[in-house]
Design a protein that fits this description.
With 346 residues, this protein is mainly alpha-helical. Helix content is 50%, strand content 8%. It is built from 13 helices and six strands. The protein is elongated.
Length: 346
């Protein structure tokens, strides 16, 4: 019996040895992983100082991806260490930070502001694009907000000059605004713009001036055309008067910059397709529609609105610009044709 048992044990030894081998391999593998994980917790993971903005909906795993940190080790460390909920804010990750220092930094928000400049000849489509490019909003969010009838009605309580408008297009004052990306909210930003319009334009040019809301809106509508038609402040009063005379005498305004608005295009997009839409009939194209566009097409500056309100009387009915943006006026079509033939390409 003893001899037979030894033979059986002898036959089992190769299998036992194989199992033991796998066990040792597994132990070594775990040991190596442990060493790697230990190195992970102590080794600097971010070589240079970095500013991180946590956006709505982002998680720690998203931040790990941004910082190019091993996701598996990151999850393990976070699981076995107390970490508070991640908040939308700005954070600064220090130079040579390890995982512990990174997570600590993500609990200590910093206040960081930046300036965003909205140009005079931008419309809501341009502003929406600018805010989207800065990762402040999702595309079309700003457009949807500024065209929302319920929101406009609610704002009328605080800004009575918004009565009867279907879009905030004309009151989103072009200026440089200081914002905190981590706290950015469309409603607060729009209110900031409306307050700026109220302070810089409405209070100075319209309030207590016996100007009806309807007349004010017509002035701003025309000013939105003048804003794009003439860049030089000194010429704006003359251009405004020319366009006013065309309106008064039942002419077409003939402003090419009104062509693109119904197609919801930015200024840069419009440049490429003006000729495509030039003959279209709609509520905005002043080449095919008598009168002003349905709504303003840009957000004009104080200077342009003031020039439109206080135009300069001249005998001119026509104007054009050459390639250097020099302006040439004409009293009649014959003079306009002469200017085209002699100055257009200079």
């Amino acid at each position: 019996m003893t001899f037979e048992r030894k033979n059986i044990e002898s036959k089992q030894n190769p299998l036992i040895r194989l199992v033991k081998l796998f066990i040792w391999i597994f132990i070594i593998f775990i040991w190596i992983k442990y060493i790697w994980y230990s190195n992970f917790t102590s080794t600097p993971l971010v070589k240079e100082e970095k500013n991180i903005t946590v956006k709505s909906g982002e998680k720690y795993s998203d931040i790990a991806t941004k910082l190019e940190i091993n996701q598996t080790y990151f999850k393990i460390y976070k699981k076995y260490n107390s970490v508070d909920e991640l908040k939308v804010w700005n954070y600064k990750i220090p130079e040579n930070a390890n995982i512990s220092q990174i997570l600590k930094a993500l609990q200590e928000p910093i206040f960081q502001t930046e300036n965003i400049t909205l140009l005079e000849w931008w419309n809501i489509f341009d502003i929406d694009e600018a805010l989207t490019n800065k990762w402040l909003i999702e595309k079309w969010e700003y457009i949807q907000y500024t065209e929302n009838a319920e929101k406009i009605h609610a704002l009328t309580e605080f800004f009575p000059f918004l009565e009867w408008v279907s879009t905030l297009e004309w009151y989103l004052y072009p200026d440089t605004y200081t914002i905190d990306p981590s706290l950015f909210a469309i409603n607060k930003f729009v209110i900031f713009q409306l307050e700026t319009f109220e302070t810089k334009v409405y209070n100075k040019l319209f309030q207590n001036k016996n100007i009806t809301l309807e007349n004010m809106q017509s002035v701003i509508n025309l000013a939105s055309i003048v804003e794009k038609e003439e860049k030089v402040t000194a010429n704006k009063k003359t251009v405004a008067w020319i366009l006013k005379k065309r309106l008064q005498e039942n002419w077409f305004i003939w402003a090419d910059i009104t062509v693109c608005y119904p197609y919801r295009l930015t200024a840069n997009e419009c440049k490429l397709v003006v000729s495509k839409y030039i003959r279209d009939k709609n509520d905005y194209n002043t080449r095919t529609k008598l009168g002003l566009p349905k709504t303003p097409i840009w957000n004009p500056s104080y200077e342009t609105i003031e020039a439109t309100l206080n135009h300069k009387n001249t005998p001119y009915y026509y104007y054009l610009h050459n390639t250097k943006w020099q302006i040439y006026y004409a009293k009649d079509n014959a003079g306009h044709v002469y200017n085209k033939n002699n100055f257009m390409r200079k």
